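User: Fold this, then the next.

Assistant: Folding the first:
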Amino acid sequence: MDDRVELGVELLAHLEHAELSLADAVDRIETVTSDPAVTREILETAERRGVIDREGDTVVPTTGDYVGFEGGDVVSKEGEFTCQRCGAGISTGYFIEFDAGDHGPFGSSCIRKVTGRDED
């Protein structure tokens, strides 16, 4: 299976939302891939595995397994990066460490938005 699918499923499994719109879920997935076929595969795989429930245009994460900012799930690295969500140049990149691989870099506000800590 495509590594992007595994990374996308893990991202959906760790969102801190009671629910979010399909458009917002796709916004998060687009930090993994912009390929519509892979996006669809991520959503279908996540639903099949019970990671999310889809109710019309609403996505409900089911795992309650959130990214720990204090437990080492998110690491920061210094360097010259481009935020994977907004495209801004950043000197500190935040990466989420998933089993499928590291996901990032993100800026300080985008890492919180991607994980669901802050609303858009």
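Now the next one, as you asked:
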Amino acid sequence: MSGSVSLNVTHEDAQAIDDCWNRIGIHGDKSCPLLAGHVHCRNCSVYSAAATRLLDRYALQQERHEQAAEADTDVVTRSLLMFRLGEEWLGIATRCLVEVAPLQPIHSLPHQRSRALLGVANVRGALVACLSLVELLGLDTTSTVVSGARVIPRMLIIAAQGGPVVVPVDEVEGIHAIDERTLNAAEVSGQQASAKYTRGVLQWKGRSLRWLDEEQLLSAVTRSLT
């Protein structure tokens, strides 16, 4: 359809309208007997009626879209950073995350205070304590993950009570907004879970993902540094 009635409509809408201007009118073979009197199809009542009908359809579609958008605003989500350690996928609330940084060399310390303390790493000129989430969470990373994609290890810089700490991870998938209803269901189902510092387990992109309790985890981080 062309001219002022060239609107984005569904296939059913288009088929329901007789676009005579494209067949026998100004954009067709010009055999319409009314064309001589109107000079152009846009001056014809048939064309005007079709345009009005399409505009009404368009307005209705826009109204439905706006209503759907308003309904979506009622959905409460929480932002989680998804990452991997060994074969296990985990998620942690972004509110305790400072940034995701490239992996830096870790320098061990003599007389380290805990097994979870790996040492220190240089983050933009500042020495930051580096902890092992594998140790804190009691994970088994002896098995190897085989992936066809290029995987780049990262460091998560998280805000602990005494200052930022870094934790190396095997892979970062990204930050995702998760429907709070999904998290609530995961939390209820995971209440009996024995995994350390875990609020629940949810299914995400075909994977079982451990949703970490950031308050318990940050408390354990603080204890590992004192």
